[in-house]
């Protein structure tokens, strides 16, 4: 019975009560996955207590290690190719949670933004968002490539934001 109760605890509550710390490691941009794999091999061969290695797609040039102490991080990255060093300080779980937690597309889009329709009969057409219905998970679009004003309502899964110019 007790085993089932412990298994029902969420990972978030376990992370908040653990004594482990999160450290950011600077790497060569584009080599985050390679560095993470090299650290994994070193942790297994040297029996280092590294509990997680995060290589996040929206965090270029950095990987995050979860370890009990800084000395383990230095032991893990010593002499590895593409490692530029360790950033100062530790990361808080709240900061990491914001990076890890997936955000739905409906939270990212705004009225007036230009999007591309990727499914349905209007696939491949550019459109402008005129209304967002978060409760029904739908958006109303004004199709830009139509010869007359055409307003359609589609599920948010049918669109993707157009490439923004910087």
TrEMBL record:
The keyword Transcription regulation applies. Keywords: Transcription, Transcription regulation. It comes from the Archaea. One of its GO terms (molecular function) is translation elongation factor activity. The keyword Membrane does not apply. Gene3D superfamilies: 2.30.30.30, NusG, N-terminal domain. Residues 19-103 form the NusG-like N-terminal domain. InterPro entries: KOW (IPR005824), NGN-domain (IPR005100), NGN-like_dom (IPR006645), NGN_dom_sf (IPR036735), Rib_uL2_dom2 (IPR014722), Spt5_arc (IPR011590), Translation_prot_SH3-like_sf (IPR008991). One of its GO terms (biological process) is regulation of DNA-templated transcription. Residues 108-135 form the KOW domain. Stimulates transcription elongation. Belongs to the archaeal Spt5 family. Belongs to the SPT5 family. Heterodimer composed of Spt4 and Spt5. Interacts with RNA polymerase (RNAP). This is Transcription elongation factor Spt5. It comes from Ignisphaera aggregans (strain DSM 17230 / JCM 13409 / AQ1.S1). The lineage of its organism: Archaea, Thermoproteota, Thermoprotei, Desulfurococcales, Desulfurococcaceae.
